[in-house]
Amino acid sequence: MASLIVTGGVPLSGTARVSGAKNAALPILAASILARSPILLYDCPKLRDVENMLSILAALGVKHEPAGEAILLDASRADAYVMPQGLSKALRSSIFMLGPLIARFGSAVCTFPGGCEIGHRPIDLHLRGLSMLGVRIREEHGLILCDGSDLTGADIHLDYPSVGATENIMMAAVAAKGDTVIRNAAREPEIEDLAAFLRKIGCFVTGDGTSTVVIRGGMKRTDPHAPIAHRVMPDRIVAGTLLCAAAMTGGEIALDNAVPTHIASALAKLREAGCTVTAAENRVFLRAPKRLREIKLIETLPYPGFPTDLQAQFFALCTLAEGTSIIVENVFENRFKHGPELIRMGASYTQKDRTVILRGVSRLTGARVTAKDLRGGAALTLAGLAAEGETTVEDAELIDRGYERLEETLSSLGARIRRLGSTAKEEP
Ligand code: UD1
């Protein structure tokens, strides 16, 4: 069990580099099993979820080893399509392996992904999309058995622009006969990063970043001896989290390796709160005002709307903003678990269903609080940075699932924060 001990009251200052994005790295790692050439993957974040994905790949016969700053992956001898059960349960993103395994082997066996900390997270859209490509799916004893020996391109309309379902269908469709069209596809930048990777390894994908993604079945031959390099896109949620931290502490920071257009919705809300935000290519600068102003309305939505993965951090920010702020969580139910913990620090809000009305207070006070999920845990850490006195964030290993040594990044910006205990814990 790990805790973060934060002594609040220091305005953050300085420059930090944003790490590669977990949500881009995971599907790209899954897709690496399709590559005929070795892969050199740069900026892959060092996170528990990434380690789990690498262990799953290893169990399927994909070799990986460090190569300087990169990870070298070699899928030429991959020989298994049955996912290791324990690891699959530990990592929700293991579901991403279904599409690539079906594309490579014509078959896949996977367990239902394990526990969910932010509400019910079904996979019906993934399975419906795959079955429209001709995959025969049976569910037995908690296992999902897929027979995709006769993959055929299809016109698929998603009922909701699910990020994971769009990615899974894209990866299966590369081996289908003919074209696949995914309509109402997710438009998240991570989809574009996956598509860029798929194109490098020889797949034919167009339309990524729009709501219509087209995949032409088949793959170009690539040289089995020449490694293909790919750099994972910067993590827009890490960037947004660090900017919130600076805003809440009255600080002034610059972020390198941040793509301003990817976080445009968050930057607009930071400006609304009174921050001065300047954006250049791959760089964002933020200066906080003396007192944050209320944010009239934050509604989480699929990209390019405001990301649900930044809702908790902005919730923490709004607890300190002058006036009344409103947050509506549309993407996941049950994603306000950080709220009651923030009340322990002096926050004031009311909740009805998916809507929270926050009345900003002039100060938070340090307390012992518990991270209930990844982003909520980050939000509590930010609150601790802004609070008077000492805050202990328990179960901080949840935060490690999405942030590479968050406390080190924050320390480098002047924060007084340290870790107690180890980092290792399985995803719940
Ligand atoms: C991805 C991100 C996650 C982010 C989320 C929304 C990764 C590894 N994770 O998760 O950090 O919070 O996008 O931006 O990229 N849904 C269904 N049926 C399905 C699939 C999803 O009903 O088959 C629902 C979910 O319950 C949820 C909504 O669709 O309410 C969004 O989920 P989705 O876009 O699929 O998120 P993930 O890909 O799981």
What does this protein structure show overall?
- The protein is an alpha+beta fold and 428 residues long.
- It folds into two domains: 3-19 and 234-420, Enolpyruvate transferase domain (UDP-n-acetylglucosamine1-carboxyvinyl-transferase, Chain); 22-231, UDP-n-acetylglucosamine1-carboxyvinyl-transferase, Chain.
- 29% of the residues lie in helices and 25% in strands.
- The protein is built from 13 helices and 23 strands.
- The chain has helices at 22-31, 48-59, 85-90, 98-105, 124-132, 163-173, 189-200, 236-248, 264-272, 311-319, 338-344, 374-386, 406-412, and strands at 3-7, 13-17, 39-42, 63-67, 70-74, 107-111, 136-140, 143-147, 155-157, 179-183, 203-206, 212-219, 228-231, 252-256, 276-280, 283-287, 298-299, 324-328, 349-352, 355-359, 368-370, 390-394, 416-420.
- The relative contact order is 0.16.
- The structure holds uridine-diphosphate-N-acetylglucosamine.
- Uridine-diphosphate-N-acetylglucosamine binds at residues 23, 26, 93, 121-126, 160, 162-165, 186, 190, 307-309, 331-332.
Blueprint (SSEs and pairs):
Blueprint: E1 3-7, E2 13-17, H1 22-31, E3 39-42, H2 48-59, E4 63-67, E5 70-74, H3 85-90, H4 98-105, E6 107-111, H5 124-132, E7 136-140, E8 143-147, E9 155-157, H6 163-173, E10 179-183, H7 189-200, E11 203-206, E12 212-219, E13 228-231, H8 236-248, E14 252-256, H9 264-272, E15 276-280, E16 283-287, E17 298-299, H10 311-319, E18 324-328, H11 338-344, E19 349-352, E20 355-359, E21 368-370, H12 374-386, E22 390-394, H13 406-412, E23 416-420
Parallel strand pairs: 2-14, 3-13, 9-10, 17-18, 21-22
Antiparallel strand pairs: 1-22, 1-23, 3-5, 4-5, 6-8, 7-8, 10-12, 11-12, 14-16, 15-16, 18-20, 19-20
Helix pairs in contact: 1-2, 1-7, 4-6, 5-6, 6-7, 8-10, 8-12, 10-12
Bound molecules: uridine-diphosphate-N-acetylglucosamine (UD1).
